[in-house]
């Protein structure tokens, strides 16, 4: 059995806020739920499946299901960090295919910016994590673990800081058209290289923004999708995987997307060469480069050449990516970027992206993400989506 | 030039665990232990009671403390600066650690390093590495 064609994304909504000190996290979840249901033309009472991850307040999905007063027959709080929401779309499609729900609501929200999270500070030690007795003293934060991957990639393949910078440059070209983006100024390779080094070899402009906000999706069965007034965005294929330190057989040059990507393409029956638009989780520039290789857009080690010279810029590049400006420039709500990756892919497939970055006849897209920590233990999830 | 100094006595305390107690006790005596599978014979890191390759039972053994840098990042903006690294142990496993007592500009992937136990704020041993003598 395949999920290809068993479910459709009928609603998508990105909260316009990037700073929300006066709203609760539950309130933001509710606001994005309203936004996505309104977008789909559905109501709260149509929802019978609910999906959320660790950003949701309270125990798993229970507190938000109660806050929203949903009458559910399917719940899922799979947490793959920022990649969770890509996996949730796949899990929703599976549940719909099995007849376990008809209308699945997926929500994400948070306000790390208002909470003063810097992005580089050590996250609280999880004392019962089995790795903590061995690693906690070293302060393995997000940015420094991604930097370890970048350093090794440069060593093995000759990848350069200039090549990584092109990823940020492309994102900034897209963000200039997004009135909600946190960073709307177009930057150059030199701008990236001149920004402060945060965790050598990564610069400040190699890093995503820290923003409040959220997003939501509504995934429905085919008959419901066809009854609604929105363009049909079909879930065609999905994959997910996890990768850790492999017992000490550490290899920082590839990600779990090496498994999730090919699985998604296989289920959809397409190849990377067929893809018109790609949403690639951009927590850091190196995250994008490694996923492009691991999904098969280029050979392992060739990612630097692939992204250089503006090849990710819509309208001129060979693979338009993150046309909303991505996490690098637009939005990274709750420090979890998978949701906005799906939302921009839906906009592209509907033809509702900003005209300056809309891909012509965009009928096939991929959205992929890495959650957790690329340099120690992370999850990956990939979706192939198509317009009918 | 960015100098990465010793942080002896300054490292955050590691959480304690039944799976790390023997390591900590040996480290207090200056001995560096790792675990090897009693079934498949492979050494692993971080140490655990069950082998991550075959789920067999594992036992402690003393390791050489010699290794090479697999990857590293210098955090020059922190005060004082520090260097996070993966080090490939002579016995095979690659471990997350930190490099100390070195100049940041002298660090390189493949560089030979030697284990040095530093202490956390409450005196727990923290396995770090410094450039090997003559390396």
TrEMBL record, chain A:
It comes from the Bacteria. GO terms for molecular function: acetyl-CoA C-acyltransferase activity. Residues 250-386 form the Thiolase C-terminal domain. Gene3D superfamilies: 3.40.47.10. NCBIfam families: PRK08142.1. PANTHER family: ACETYL-COA C-ACETYLTRANSFERASE (PTHR42870), NON-SPECIFIC LIPID-TRANSFER PROTEIN-LIKE 2 (PTHR42870:SF1). This is Thiolase domain-containing protein. It comes from Methylobacterium terricola.
Automatic annotation (TrEMBL), chain B:
Residues 25-57 form the ChsH2 rubredoxin-like zinc ribbon domain. InterPro entries: ChsH2_C, ChsH2_Znr, NA-bd_OB-fold, Thioester_dehydratase-like. Keywords: DNA-binding. The keyword Secreted does not apply. One of its GO terms (molecular function) is DNA binding. Residues 60-118 form the ChsH2 C-terminal OB-fold domain. It holds the Pfam family zf-ChsH2. Transmembrane segments: none annotated. The keyword tRNA processing does not apply. PANTHER family: BLR3430 PROTEIN (PTHR34075). This is DNA-binding protein. It comes from Methylobacterium terricola. The lineage of its organism: Bacteria, Pseudomonadati, Pseudomonadota, Alphaproteobacteria, Hyphomicrobiales.
